[in-house]
Request: fold
Amino acid sequence: MIEHFVQFYENDTYLVNQVAGFIRAGLQAGDAAIVIATKPHRDDLENRLRADTSSIAAQRPHGDQYVALDAADTLSKFLVDGQPDEERFTDLLAPILKRTTDGGSGRVQVFGEMVGLLCTDGKHKAAIRVEELWNNLAKIHSFSLYCAYPMRAFPRAVDGGPFLAICNEHSRVGPAESYTPPANAHEHFRTIAVLQQKAIALETEVAHRRDIEKAL
Reply:
């Protein structure tokens, strides 16, 4: 069974703090962890985990219990002509999921940043397809998946459609940190995240109009 959670963010420090809590909780429970992220985020995350002696130092007796992969490199291995290939995706990630859970609790926490890279490059359809492939993989493997997207990847009003489609591929949606949630507000997070994207798109449009006015 999969819990597929998406976190939108504006600041990298906020993202790493959130992911560190997600991975730390899993390691402390004896779960395996797979981190697929950019090098700065991988390094920052592991430094935070190492600082907590109850997490990585205590929970990483076997090298396969905590696996860190480069997001861009992993992505390149299953893209064909710029589009995700399901067979390559499964052949690449299914063995890693199996290996990390062998001899442990059977549970695994996964953080994936590949979709964020695709959207930053304007490849929203490819990112949505990767989310679908994760959901398909969950039919044969049990894991909790935490995905992340920078809000700057959705700067235009036209990005609202892909943004909503991404939200709909997840069981839970976390809005960016500019929103401070009240207690018991999880049911509103999807709506808040969509509104944040619309606000960014409006700011982009206003800035564009100002540039046109200056040019005139």
Summary: The CA atoms of residues 128 and 165 lie 7 Å apart. The domain at 3-215 is CATH 3.40.50 (Rossmann fold). Confidence is low (pLDDT under 50) at residues 57-62. Strands lie at 3-9, 32-37, 66-70, 79-80, 83-84, 108-112, 144-150, 172-174.
